[in-house]
Every structure is written in C-alpha cells, then in structure tokens.
Write a structure and sequence with these properties.
Low-confidence stretches: 1-16
Subcellular location: Secreted
Strand order of the largest sheet: 1-2-3-4-5-6
InterPro entries: Barnase, N1-like, Ribonuclease/ribotoxin
Strand content: 15-25%
CATH topology: Nuclear Transport Factor 2, Chain: A
Order of helices and strands: HHHEHHEEEEE
Keywords: Hydrolase, Nuclease, Secreted
Protein name: Ribonuclease
Main location: secreted
Number of helices: 5
Radius of gyration: 17 Å
CATH architecture: Roll
Number of domains: 1
Helix content: 25-40%
C-alpha cells in the first residue's frame, strides 16, 4: 500500500501538463511570444469567438465551452489614456486558470510593444 506522500507525488507529476491553459497563459511565455511574433499565440480567441462556442462570462465556463483556449485579441480602447496615445491596442488574459477570469492581462500593439496589468487596467508595467 502506498503512503499518502507517494500518492501526492504521483498525482502532482500526473497533473502537470505543459500544454494546460495555466501554463500556456503564463505571463512571461505570452509576453515573449507577442514581442517576437507581434500577435498572440493561436490558442487565444476573442470574446465573440468564445461566446459563439458557448462561453458565458458570468458562469466562468470557458474551459468547458472552448477547451485549451484563452480570451485575447479584442481591441483595448485606452479610454483613461494610461498608455501612450496614438496606438491601436489589444488585450489578452494571462495567468489564466479555469473558472472566472481574473485581473491579470497584457495590452499590446501590433509592433510588439507589451504592457502588463495585474489590477485590471488600473496600472501598467511596460515589458
């Protein structure tokens, strides 16, 4: 009979998946990708695409409606003018895990400029 610690270790090994949405939306991974490719990875879908797949934001069901996908690619308006004026901006969730969307996002341009916000657009860090 295996001990609890052995079961926990094997469960942890089995639960790690480098292609899980948690790992795929790691802020560093996504920021580096956007800087290099000037666009989001293919596993990002816009809010309207997610809704067409059955996503209901209030239910936090993105992982059921669109497995392996994260929200990103919608235009960010910069209404509060906290980012430089004159650019077209896009947003994407980072550090996402299934359930309700949290506050972590990147905002980026097609030139590969990226800003990180961890407080839902209240403040930004250029990356």
């Amino acid at each position: 009979m295996e001990s609890v610690s052995e079961n926990s270790e094997s469960a942890n090994e089995n639960s790690f998946d480098e292609n899980s949405i948690e790992n795929l939306t790691d802020e560093t991974l996504v920021i580096n990708y956007v800087k290099a490719h000037k666009q989001l990875p293919a596993y990002y879908i816009t809010k309207s695409e997610a809704r067409r797949n059955g996503w209901n934001p209030s239910q936090g069901n993105l992982c059921d409606a669109a497995p392996g996908k994260a929200i990103g690619g919608d235009q960010f308006s910069n209404r509060e003018k906290k980012l430089p004026i004159g650019n077209q901006y896009f947003e994407a969730d980072v550090n996402f895990s299934c359930g309700q969307r949290q506050a972590d996002r990147i905002v980026f341009t097609k030139k590969g400029e990226v800003w990180l916000t961890k407080d839902h657009y209240r403040s930004f860090q250029k990356r």
